[in-house]
Structures are given as structure tokens and as C-alpha cells.
């Protein structure tokens, strides 16, 4: 048998703490002390100290960091070793000697351009490993939440011909003899699918040609979107509370080690249980004016205002009832108060801000066409979307959740780039 | 309370079979008999017959198909009704009267261009509903398979600058002041991620500018890809057997009604348990020559040959050991027999053919650069991919699975378009 096939995960070796074991992995740290070489070996599960006799394995001393190897020996409890256990190596059966590794992890500044240039290697760092594990848990929890509540997972197209969010940030694709666009949101397609499946969700990439480099924008991001038939704004907002609450709970359950490694304080996460803090747009304007923002009713609530609001409350905020002109045409106006829409955003605490945008959609065909015209758009461009209202339309509501932003907040990252394995923005498209 | 909030799913009403109930949904069929209007009402869960007194609800008779409504009444067992239960309607609380519905479902030919033009409505058909439910189950089972076996879900980029599968089928995107491409496969990125997480998978769109309209090609498709550190061709092929076996078992468990509605015979599905039929390329050439194909060793095994092979065996086939020149440069050559690669395809039975392509990757830096040059490519174009081998490389293997193709086979569909909600090919980019 190939030597590395009998290896056990390093976390398992640390748990056992005695007996013979084979481990495999990458050299994470190295130090020589008299007759012994101490190698810290990492794998996907942890880090263990290998104690290697120099005389028997002279090559150990000259191994570069990130070299890979398979070692067999005896596990011994040693309080001074990381994880409290070390492996006294008896044989090394497989080695791939690496060139001198170009990254000094201890000195690295995580959002530097250099680390983005060598992102394919920086993924090996313990920090990225921890973030990627949290990310894995977040995505799994989103799927579980929707599936357990009777939503069907669907797969809307990436190539589209009509804009949901407005034309300015559309990417153009050369599509044989014509031009198409990349999807910004699957919402219109989810709306078509509720007439068949009633409750649908998708977790898929969306694309926005964002010309600015901010800490919370990328040109491609993962979007969890859902839509429910026979539902209203409050129904959708409650799903938003619940899915975030469920995700956070799962991460707190499964990823304590990773949160600790990242230095993430978990108090704000522990408080993120439904119900969130419901705040109307009107109330938000009041709160912000008291805090010194020169705002009038009707003004947009931008990134700075969002930040100020989230610092005012210790839970995520459901900010609802935006004025008509601040939200896209498809939002249903409140029949009791037509100047505002049945729309909401969810804002994450600690300054993180918007993670969900959603609301109730116009379901009446005539009302939709009138609003399209009122917004200066052409109903011809939305023919099939209007069509959905011509045959047995129903009240419905939904939202889109920026999953990378959710991971960013949960991990306590400073920049959205830090939580995406290969981030893309206006300047960066490689590796 | 809004009337439709008290509705129960139609499947639940059919199970109860007695007592008072409110249901909601869309008019699927309509017929008038003397003083009664019989409406078949559909929702996401089933179809129930509503018995509506004409005198009390004169509007019922003129309702167009696909109108939506909410009805309350008494459930009565009636063997002649679909599902064996009907609702004797006492009140209709909510109606959205549709225009005359443009599709006659009974007359519809499923792959007609017209049904593709009105795909946003055709999704309401019972056939599409059944297929979308199977699709939902397939995707869920793929995630479950990988997660339960310790794989981490990762999210490689959609915007790329180097081709995995060759430049001919790359889509170009106008990316601010330059051009980038859409991903054809996440393999290279998964290879980077195994050095951190060891076992990784992704389920994401891939894009290929396929100029031909065939029954198994689309320009965007969902790709389940995985990569494992410290692994070889056989390890990857076994994961392929297992994931397909697991998915099929789940569908047989959860989706019998949908398979029946589609008229899918399930014998071939029931036989799709690991181990599959392992067949070397050399053996395949022999089998095909005996069947009259004029093939020499080294020739490609195209769609016709695949079809013939799959009709020869009653299980999926692991076809392995392709000649070097038939597979991309990154496949590792067999050290015992350098003219063949440690590569494999999985072919689905009943003529469906290739659903997985995978194998062992070259992990030695020098060997990789030599093969890139031997293939007439430029190592400069693969700098970061080669880089992965410069620091502690390990043997590894993986594959890509075309999820839409898997759904197509499981559903017994004639065309891949039939199992995708909004299919895209050279001619079609809307709705
Ligand atoms: Mg906003
Ligand atoms: Mg092939």
C-alpha cells in the first residue's frame, strides 16, 4: 500500500495522544535544537509537532516550509507542544521537497496586493483555512434551512437579456453573433418558478460590473435568493431573520476553533437570533437626524448611514418601507400608503450593513405595467416578466442575500476579499 | 387573516379525505356538468377536484385555465376523482382571473421551439414540475454525499484568464478595459484548494461556447467537481461510482411519483449501484471493433461509440486509461505504460453516455512543464498552476460531473433542454 494511504488525520492523532501513528501533510514551521529537528506538520484538520532525529533523517533539517511528507512514529503527550501531543518519528516514507516558500505567514498583512497575487498559495495559511471552513458551514446551513422548510432548489440562467438591477452594472458577453449579459439577480426567474413550485431558492453566482473597490463589493459574488408564492413583505423578512439566525447558530456550533483562530469575538453573533430589530424607513430617518445626519424624508440610506444605524442597535436590523423612488420598479407599493414600497433590507450589526434586499413584488399586471412606465422604462423589455401576471398571478415576496457578505461579518473580516478564495474586482482577475 | 394563509397543501387535503379544508392553487382543468363546475386545482404538491355549484359561483364556469383561487369546503372521498378525494366548495375567497392560457398541455410536444419561447409559463406543466423536483433531489443528494464524506464546499471564480478545456469554446466577457473569460471547469482552482482543505467540491455553473445544438450540450450547465489530495485515479473513479449511486438511490426513495408521471422505467436506475462496469480503453476498442466500428487504437471514442458501449452493458461504465493525445495535458501518464493516461470517463447506460470526466493529475512540476511543452502549449500561460507543484506537491485526482446530464438520464429525458428551467444554447437566450 502507498504509505500515505495509512495516514490518519492530524486532529485524530492529537485526540489519540499515544500509540503508533502515520500522519501526512505540509511542513508549517521548522526549528532545530541539538540533535532534533522539530517540524510542525499541518493538514486540513490541524497541526502536530514531529520530533525528528537529525542523525537518522539528515534531510529533515533542510526541508523548506510547505514541503509535503508522510511520517510514522509514536504519539507522546507533551504539554509544551501545540495541541499537547507530538509524534516521535521513526520513519519518513514519502517526501516532496519544495522550493523556498515565498510567503512568511507571520509577517503577512492579509489584504495586501502581494497576498492576492499569490492567492493560490496563500489559501494554505491557517487564516484562510479557517475562513474557508466557516464559508463551507455557512453554505451548508443555507441549503439546509431552505430544504427543511419545503423550498425547492432551482437553477436560473446566468446568461440573460434583461436587467433586474439596472443596466449600468451589467457585464456584456460575446455570445456567438450577438451580445448577452451576465445575471445580476435571479429574482425574475424565481418569480416564474413559484407558479410551479411555490417556494423556491437558489444559491448561485451573480455578477455586477462594480467600478469601485470597496470593502463590500466584488464583481462576482454568491447570491442566495428565494421567492414564495402567497406571501407578503413580512413573510419574506421573517425568512430572512430565520435563515441568518440558523446560519449563525450552526457556525457557533461547528466552528468555534476557527472563530477563535481568527480572533472573532462571538457576542454579536450570539445575539443574532430572531426577531431582529424592525425599523421603518421613517424611524431610521429620525434616528439618523438625531445622530447629526442632514437627511430629509426620501433621501437614500447609503453606506455611511447604514453603518451608523447598525452601531445603534445590537442586533441585525430589518429596515423596511423605503420610498418608491429608492427601490426598483418591481416592488409593490403599500396600498395604504402608496408613496412607500413593501420592501426591506437586512443590515448586519457592527457596521457591516446591508446583506439582504427584498420585499413584496407587484403581482397585478396592470399595476406592474403602469409602474414600469412611471419609472421611464419600456414594458416591451419586460414582456415575459409581465406575462407571469397575465395568468393566475398570486401575491408573492422574496429576497436576495449576499452570502460572501454574511461570511465576512461572521468571520469578522475587514474586507470581502478576505472571505472569497479567488476574489474578483475591477483590477483583479487572477490567479 | 388573508384567506390563502389558512390553506393546506393539496397533497395534505388528499391525505385527509374528510372534514373542512381550504386549498389554494391554479386551475388545471375545467368541465361543466349540469349544475356543477368541476375544476381541477393544482399546487406544488398535487391536484384536487373542486366541485363548484354553478348557481352559487357563476364566475367559476368562465374561469380560464391557470387562474388562481382560494376555495374552502368539505373533503369527500370519491374514487372517480384524481387522487380519490374531491372538495365540495362552499366559498371562494380569492380569485385572480387569468387571460386565456396560451398552452394546451395535452397537445404540447415537449421540445418544441414554442414551448421554449413560453418556458416561463411551461414551467407550470406537471411534466416540468416533476422534472424540477427530481432536479432538486439530485442537487441535494450531491451536496449531502460530499459533505458527509468530509469534503469542503468551495467557490472557485467564474471569471478566469486561462483555459482548462482549450480555448475554442471560451466565452469572452468585456471586463472594464480588458477581456476575461467565463470558466469552463473549476479544476485548476480545486487543485489549489486541496493544499489547504485536502478534499474539496463545488457545484457551480460552467460555460462552453458550444456551436452545435445536440441533445446533450448547453452553453451553460451545472458542474459538480471534486478534487482529493493524496489520491489516485481509482480513488476518484470510486467517488464517481458512489456519488451517482447515492443520487440515484435518493431519487428512487423520494421521487417515485414524479418518475411515474414521466413514464420513466426504473430498472436501469435500480441497477446503477457500485461497482460499475470497469472497462479499459483497450478493451473498449476491442468491443467496438467486434460490433463493426472501424477503429484503431488511439482513435477517439465519440458520441456514437459511447452510445454503442452503453447499450452493451446494463450498468454505468468506468471507461479508463485513455491514450495521452485524447486527454488534456494535465492528466498524469501511467508510469508503467506512458502512452496512456490515468484518466477515466463515466458513461451512463441506455445510450446516455459521458457524465463524468476525471483522473489523476500530474503532481510533479518538471513532468507538468514537459507535458505542457510536448502539447505545444506555453508554460507562461499556466504559471500559477505550475506553481502549485513547486511547494510540497502531493498526488491528487478529481473529476467533473455534468449535473444536468445526470438529471436527464434519471428523468429519462430525450434532450438536456428538457431538464433545465431556462436552457441556453447557440440560438436561445430568452426568456
Ligand atoms: Mg441599500
Ligand atoms: Mg469523451
Nutshell version of this structure?
Chain A is an alpha+beta fold. The first copy, chain A, has 13 helices and 18 strands. The mean pLDDT of chain A is 96.
CATH architecture descriptor of the largest domain in chain A: 2-Layer Sandwich
Counting helices, strands and paired strands, the structural category of chain A is: alpha+beta
Q: How would you name the oligomeric state of the polypeptide chains in this document?
A: homodimer
At the third CATH level, what is the topology name of the largest domain in chain A? Answer: BirA Bifunctional Protein, domain 2
Strand order of the largest sheet of chain A: 6-10-11-18-17-16-13-12
Beta-sheet strand percentage of chain A? 25-35%
The mean pLDDT of chain A is: 96
Please provide a written account of the structure.
2 copies of one chain form a homodimer. Chain A is of the alpha+beta class and 431 residues long. Chain A folds into 2 domains: 3-96, Beta Barrel (OB fold (Dihydrolipoamide Acetyltransferase, E2P)); 119-419, 2-Layer Sandwich (BirA Bifunctional Protein, domain 2), CATH 3.30.930. Chain A is built from 13 helices and 18 strands. Chain A has helices at residues 10-16, 113-117, 119-122, 126-148, 187-197, 233-254, 256-261, 267-270, 281-290, 303-312, 365-374, 383-387, 403-411; strands spanning 19-33, 36-42, 47-53, 68-77, 85-96, 152-153, 159-160, 172-175, 178-182, 199-207, 220-229, 277-280, 317-320, 333-334, 337-341, 343-348, 353-360, 396-402. In chain A, the strands form 4 sheets. In chain A, strands 6-10-11-18-17-16-13-12 form an 8-stranded mixed β-sheet, sandwiched between helices. In chain A, strands 1-2-3-5-4 form a 5-stranded mixed barrel. Chain A has a 3-stranded antiparallel β-sheet with strand order 7-9-8, with no helix packed on it. The radius of gyration of chain A is 26 Å and the shape is elongated. The two termini of chain A are 36 Å apart. At the A-B interface, strand 1, helix 4, strand 6, strand 7 and strand 8 of A face strand 1, helix 4, strand 6, strand 7 and strand 8 of B. Bound molecules: magnesium ion (2 copies). One magnesium ion binds at residues 345, 354 of chain A. Chains A, B: Belongs to the class-II aminoacyl-tRNA synthetase family. Chains A, B: Its EC number is 6.1.1.22.
Amino acid at each position: 500500500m502507498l504509505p500515505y494511504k495509512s495516514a490518519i488525520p492530524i486532529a485524530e492523532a492529537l485526540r489519540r495522544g499515544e500509540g503508533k501513528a502515520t500522519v501526512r501533510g505540509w511542513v508549517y514551521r521548522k526549528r532545530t535544537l541539538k540533535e532534533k529537528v522539530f517540524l510542525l506538520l499541518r493538514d486540513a484538520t490541524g497541526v502536530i509537532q514531529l520530533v525528528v532525529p537529525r542523525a537518522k533523517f539528515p534531510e529533515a533539517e533542510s526541508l523548506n516550509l510547505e514541503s509535503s511528507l508522510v511520517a510514522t512514529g509514536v504519539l507522546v503527550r507533551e504539554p509544551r507542544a501545540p495541541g499537547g501531543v507530538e509524534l516521535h518519528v521513526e520513519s519518513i516514507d514519502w517526501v516532496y521537497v519544495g522550493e523556498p516558500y515565498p510567503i512568511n505567514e507571520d509577517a503577512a498583512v492579509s489584504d495586501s496586493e502581494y497576498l492576492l497575487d499569490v492567492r493560490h498559495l496563500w489559501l494554505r495559511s491557517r487564516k484562510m483555512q479557517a475562513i474557508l471552513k466557516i464559508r463551507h458551514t455557512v453554505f451548508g446551513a443555507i441549503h439546509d434551512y431552505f430544504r427543511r422548510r419545503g423550498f425547492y432548489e432551482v437553477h436560473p440562467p446566468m446568461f440573460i437579456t434583461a436587467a433586474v438591477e439596472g443596466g449600468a452594472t451589467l457585464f456584456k458577453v460575446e455570445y456567438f453573433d450577438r451580445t448577452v449579459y451576465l445575471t445580476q439577480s435571479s429574482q425574475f426567474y424565481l418569480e416564474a418558478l413559484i407558479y410551479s413550485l411555490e417556494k423556491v431558492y437558489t444559491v448561485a453566482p451573480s455578477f455586477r460590473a462594480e467600478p469601485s473597490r470597496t470593502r463590500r463589493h466584488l464583481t462576482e459574488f454568491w447570491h442566495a435568493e428565494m421567492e414564495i408564492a402567497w406571501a407578503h413583505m413580512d413573510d419574506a423578512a421573517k425568512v430572512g431573520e430565520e435563515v441568518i439566525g440558523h446560519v449563525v447558530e450552526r457556525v457557533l456550533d461547528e466552528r468555534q476553533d476557527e472563530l477563535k483562530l481568527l480572533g472573532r469575538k462571538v457576542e454579536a453573533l450570539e445575539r443574532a437570533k430572531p426577531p431582529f430589530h424592525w425599523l421603518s424607513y421613517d424611524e431610521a430617518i429620525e434616528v439618523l437626524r438625531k445622530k447629526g445626519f442632514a437627511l430629509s424624508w426620501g433621501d437614500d440610506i447609503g453606506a455611511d448611514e447604514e453603518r451608523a444605524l447598525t452601531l445603534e442597535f445590537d442586533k441585525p436590523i430589518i429596515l423596511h418601507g423605503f420610498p418608491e423612488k429608492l427601490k426598483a420598479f418591481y416592488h409593490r407599493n403599500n396600498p395604504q400608503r402608496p408613496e412607500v414600497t413593501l420592501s426591506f433590507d437586512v443590515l448586519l450589526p457592527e457596521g457591516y450593513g446591508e446583506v439582504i434586499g427584498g420585499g413584496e413584488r407587484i403581482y397585478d399586471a396592470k399595476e406592474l405595467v403602469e409602474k414600469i412606465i412611471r419609472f421611464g422604462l419600456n414594458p416591451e423589455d419586460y414582456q415575459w416578466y409581465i406575462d407571469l401576471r397575465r395568468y393566475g398571478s398570486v401575491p408573492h415576496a422574496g429576497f436576495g442575500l449576499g452570502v460572501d457578505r454574511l461570511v465576512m461579518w461572521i468571520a469578522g473580516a475587514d474586507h470581502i476579499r478576505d472571505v472569497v478564495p479567488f476574489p474578483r474586482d475591477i483590477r483583479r482577475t487572477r490567479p
